[in-house]
Structure prediction request, 404 residues.
Amino acid sequence: MNDGLLIVLSGPSGAGKGTIHDKVLQIMPEIKKSISVTTRKPRKHEIEGVHYYFKTEEEYSQMIADGEFLETASVYCHNYGTPKAPVFEMLKNGSDVIFEIDNFGSRQIKKKYPDAVTIYIMPPSFEELERRLIARGTETPDSLKTRLGNARRELSEYKDFDYIVFNDDADVATEQVVAIIRAEKCRMYRNEQTVKGMLKRK
Amino acid sequence: MNDGLLIVLSGPSGAGKGTIHDKVLQIMPEIKKSISVTTRKPRKHEIEGVHYYFKTEEEYSQMIADGEFLETASVYCHNYGTPKAPVFEMLKNGSDVIFEIDNFGSRQIKKKYPDAVTIYIMPPSFEELERRLIARGTETPDSLKTRLGNARRELSEYKDFDYIVFNDDADVATEQVVAIIRAEKCRMYRNEQTVKGMLKRK
Prediction:
């Protein structure tokens, strides 16, 4: 059986990677999501092992020391990371695993697992990105300015990704991501074992 | 505007590349087919410039001498080839062009146009390939033996292709080819100009 695909969705905030991530999972419910480990306190409704694995700083540092992470980052003084073992296990069992993560996390994953398929979700334009961030109504003029500055810096890292999907219409962009996942399963080197088996027989 | 995609469908006879080729064009009627040049005489109903461009041996040899072919082959003492110029013109205008061609032709195309997307249509098994060839009712025991021998030799060249599609169900295989075409349009390097333009603006 072929290994599953490790699929990474990245993109600046406002590009819509969260929406596309959820829509892809509606079309391909068989795809697994990885569960992150975090040192922040659980919010109400957050269930251990469903939303996150909640760890103390000490436990988390030990996991880093033991090289247990596929990627790890610190956000607002809290650590968030993806443990390697369960992801590699799902892939070995032939399950596809999808990540919605920032550029930094994507680069760490690609480094530890070069066969990862990395997809960058782009806004159709900066104007549209700005419009979406304002529409959220959660941005102050300052935070908006910061987010747009970050977006420009992040977008300039597009070369790190295998694919670029422009999210003008979320359904069209979702179809493109689904097509990428289906196409990657047909890559020659992913099917070599099957073909070799076929050529051996008879 | 991005260049169109040059898509190559290959596979041993009986794998079903012809059927898939036609089904892909039903789903993506915007994809252009290239018209071959041949030295064989037109059959009735065959129209110059629609089915083939019919040339004399002398004209054909001159075209070879002038390096006008993307690929050329001799089949049963007749020459068949694809003229480069019209294909490259369609690609430059942003049109995708699809080829249904054998391994030898596919290799020639990939050599002259490395950006070609080459897809190998595989039968699900040798048993099924044999069953399909017999079902055609056009094969003598000898020609069947020859075709199966050729198939085995051709299948062992799978490494020359970018993608492998197993044709168990023609509709599923067609969807996979369509997904490959859609995914290839999202490849990072095919969208670099668009992104650079976006980063320049504003």
